[in-house]
Amino acid sequence: MSLGLVLAFSLALPALAQTTSTGATATTATKIACVSTAVATREAAIDTAVTAHADAVNTAYKTRAIELAGAYSNTTAKTVQAGVKVAWADFSKSVKSAATKWKSARNSAWSTFRTSAKACKAPVGVSDSTNSSAEVSGQ
Prior knowledge:
Number of strands: 0
Mean pLDDT: 84
Distance between the termini: 64 Å
């Protein structure tokens, strides 16, 4: 058997596997591609949410620094304490808000993914839903 014939046969084999008489392989491939699209959509949504969360936390730290600088520019202990209290309260509120928004966006992305992946009717084990607990919590 010549090398060219072996090479041609080996290249044709995957194509033959996809064109079975029942079309099962092609259907499975289509279902897997459907899940792949759902995963890509989920990951894009999570990327957007993570960026928004990071930006919000970064802004909270910058704002806290500005407010603390203002507090420590006062000349009495009482006004310094009042300013510090406000700075930390504002910071806490901003960080909690960022975490709430992150969690909501994360949960929404996973929920949409699960619905989309279920509609794909892919074979068992194709989805990575069991890994959702490994997601960052958004402290």
